[in-house]
Amino acid sequence: MNQSSFVSLLTDFGTKDYFVGAMKGALLSVNPQVQIIDITHEIPPHDIYAGAFQLLAAYRSFPAKTVHVAVVDPGVGSTRRPVLVASRDYFFVGPDNGLFSYVCEREEQVRVFHLTNEKYFRSTVSATFHGRDLFAPVAGAVSSGVAPEELGPEITDYIRLEPLAVRAVGAGQLEAAVIHVDRFGNCITSITRDDLTVEMLAKGARLVIRGREITSFRKFFAEDGTGASELFAVWGSAGFLEIAAFKASAARLLGIERGEPVLIISE
Fold first, then answer.
1. How much is the pTM?
2. Contacts from 56-62 at CB under 8 Å and sequence distance 24+?
3. Under CATH, to which class is 167-265 assigned?
4. Which CATH code fits 6-155?
5. pLDDT of residue 195
């Protein structure tokens, strides 16, 4: 039995409407003992990439066996499949549209199941609200100990977004990208410590973004405390390198959005 005490919710529903409350009600109707934790409901509408990043950044903060329900679902009611992703320590429930791509990249072992067993859905499933009628009840069932195999067949052709991995583009050059811009304007890149090592930094590695060179690497945002327009890099809490400016929006200073290329240049 893989019973869980916790279910997390991540959606683009916002909090003005009844959607989140209805999902919680449907979940509790299946498992009244479960504790529900909101990661966020402020994903920009229909923004699968933002949802995938926020889920990646948050999911390992939860206890093992947590069931993560993520619903950013512009294809609701269409032929897109509902899925359950089972990793070694966590479960993920939501639409098969790439939302779980980054989690699947990070986890060493994942199994993905197409949710087809209507026994675990609400008696009436709305074509426009699978969060309440399908994903929440399934999460309640999984948190109660229902095995993934009971929910539908295992699949291998699930949807994947472009990988986060950096790529070589020339001698001594790697190309990454800005994968998220947070509310402070910090530009979170796809660069990890495996891509930009201590040895590379010691040898003078630098970043180039939108024609600007960044050679300042800080341990925390206020390390210098001066120069609000000065761009620098810092390792963020999600494990990725961020381009930032102290008390200012780096994204605004650079005039960039998610997807902007970032070069690592090392000698």
1. 0.92
2. 56/102, 56/103, 56/106, 56/238, 57/237, 57/238, 58/8, 58/10, 59/8, 59/90, 59/92, 59/103, 62/6, 62/8, 62/37, 62/90
3. mainly beta
4. 3.40.50.10790
5. 93
